[in-house]
Amino acid sequence: MTVSEWLLLLAAGFAGGVINSVSSGGSFFTYPALLAVGLPSINAAATTLAALTPGNLAAVPEYLPEVRHDRSRYGRELPVVFVGAVVGIVLLLSTGADIFDSLVPWLILAATLLFAFSSRLQAVAQRSAPSVSDGGLGRSLVFALSVYLTYFGSGVGNMFTSLFLVRGFKDFFNANAAKNIVLTMGTVMATVAYGAAGLVGWSQLLPVFIGSTLGGAGFAKLARRVPLAALRALIVALGLSVAAYQFVF
Fold first, then answer.
1. Residue 206: enclosing H or E segment and its boundaries?
2. SS3 content of the chain, % helix, strand, coil (to 5)
3. 54 FRET partner, CA 20 to 30 A, in 13, 128, 179, 243?
4. Does an H or E element contain 176, and which?
């Protein structure tokens, strides 16, 4: 790798760590950067999941009061997340690069649109609270998002945050704390599996890993002050741009 490529990945990792600690969408920065330095799409996705792990983990201590408040709820969410994450890993390893490449632009577009309209979808879900918050539908949604988390994962953090709000976490900060723990759990599992399968680009991972850690640890406090509307607009614009590029090329 050249110095400019290393710095590009460092900056993308930093932006991804900041964005993920505040809301979601960090992979919209890291995934195209990894493609730009020459990684195939399936390797770029696996490396993104591995590289953003420290950013998610570094943001967890900022939310320890919220985690303690909702500790009883984690017992019902994390087992479902674990099973879904295993299914996502098996799907990626078994379907191969050709199917993955054909799905990527659609996955990015779907993730971006779900992110853009998540508040409206959340309002609809809250009107169906009994089935989503405590019933089988809610558990099925947690499972489905967990499969997507380890299969590709772009934009999944905001979806988890919205779902956890509906499922009884007190407010945005409590739901965001749960999101950080779930994403850390899923990306650690993916890193181990995809690293063992040879899909992670370790040399490309290092600068993203460093940037993600610095961004997540240094800017988690901004989650309480950042203008979320502007942040969401930036993430949606970037997601649509990446999806358009994938459709064309």
1. helix 202-219
2. 85, 0, 15
3. 243
4. helix 172-196
pLDDT tens sequence across 83-115: 999 999 999 999 877 888 888 888 878 777 776
Give CA–CA dist 243/248, Å, rounded: 9
Among 118, 120, 97, 100, smallest CA distance to 25 is for: 118
DSSP code at position 74: H
**Per-position b or e across 132-146, b if 16+ CB within 10 A of its CB:** bbeeeebbebbbbbb
Which ranges of 60-135 would DSSP assign to H, the alpha helix?
Answer: 64-69, 71-116, 118-127, 129
Query: What residue ranges do the domains of the chain occupy?
Result: 3-248
SS3 (DSSP) at 135: coil
Which residues have CB under 8 Å from 148's CB, separation 6+? Answer: 88, 107, 156
Cβ neighbours for 177, distance < 8 A, ≥ 6 positions apart? 60, 63, 66, 67, 70
Question: Which has the higher per-residue pLDDT, 120 or 174?
Answer: 174
Find out whether 216 and 17 touch, Cβ atoms under 8 Å: yes
Q: What is the tens place of the pLDDT at every residue in 46-97?
A: 998 888 777 777 777 877 888 888 788 888 889 999 999 999 999 999 987 7
Which residue, 56, 63, 76, 4, is CA-closest to 187? 56
3-state secondary structure of 156: helix
User: Could you tell me the pTM of the whole model?
Assistant: 0.80
